[in-house]
Amino acid sequence: MITLLIVADDFTGALDTGVQLAGCGARTRVVTDPAFSPDRAQDAEVLVIDAETRHLPPSQAAGIVEGIVRRAVAHKVPYLYKKTDSALRGNVGAELGAMLAASGEKALPFLPAYPQIGRCTKGGVHYIEGKPVAESVFGIDPFEPVRHSRIADLIASQSGVPVHSVPADAPAPAGEGIYVYDAESLEDLEQAGRTLMDAGRLHISAGCAGFGAVLPGLLGLGHPEQVTRPALDPRLLVVCGSVNPITLAQLDHAEAAGFARMRLAPRQKLQPGYWNTGEGEQARQDIEAVLQAHPLAIIDSNDAGGNQPTADYAAQLGCSLETMRVRIASSLGDLVAGIFHSPALGTLLLTGGDTLLQCMRCAGVTELEPVCEMEKGVVLARFTCDGCTRHVITKSGGFGQPSLLTDLAAALAQGTT
Question: pTM of the entire structure?
Fold first, then answer.
């Protein structure tokens, strides 16, 4: 029976929160169908639904979240968690307002901090590594820039629900609206969680993977003795669909350390159906040859050296920024689906929720099993397509130290993952 339902706005977010439960031994399912009914997952303790609302208009995103929450309430799921991006990207205000309205509750505790990776909330302002989020790399994201560091202002930009900023040691909410909790440490999150649980005010809550890591202990979920890490293929292919500077630094570091880096041409990224053409088939065979010769490799959707040939090509095609984003993710999905069964392919690492989702869609897969965290924000999962099971490592574009990819490669080689 489902104890906890998590609603995420993108696929990597669904995984990095779902794995907090799976890593503790809770039976966890992650699905990509927003219409998925809780009664279809009675074998699970935790159901995570990727609503895929990150890039939708706020009103449409709110409608999808409202529908999911209403179905969960009708099925009497005891605990609901709205997973938000740890950098506050997406339709945060619209989705929190929708969850509160659909739940029948008066107050929604919102704990957006992820202090485990340096993302904290203080005085109602959200910080990334000590910088207000709107002044960090997330403030200049070309697809979804974060405009507000003060969380109440961010929510108010999409919702008319009252917002209250409170410290981590605040009593349980006594009024109505969204209550934004400060947290500068894991202990702060745990303290707030205990207060809410003791007061019976945790039936609905929201936050990122930071508070997600606290939920198993609060809700009594998990069987740690059942958690085992599988042996992984030491060959590693990184498929990058992220433009985040943090990821770009990781790719540069890996290339300097010897990873073979293959940059896709604008035509390969933006021409629909490219990988099903004769030219695309030859290009895919060339990529497989590189994988055969190089156990550590990168497929990169970014242009080299700050150049903009992809943007120029998109302009020639009349593609908007959003169309370009979707076509690039779809192209990567087609490519990965085409090499999924290749004997040259080992362990996959995918960056960016769009990339992961499109890869699964192109492979005809709608469900993925989170296994464990390899480090904070880096999730190991697996899925099966046509009898072939692959392990895939996923991460959001904005996570990790510059040496992340080389560190993971070393761990795979040593069998210490």
Answer: 0.84
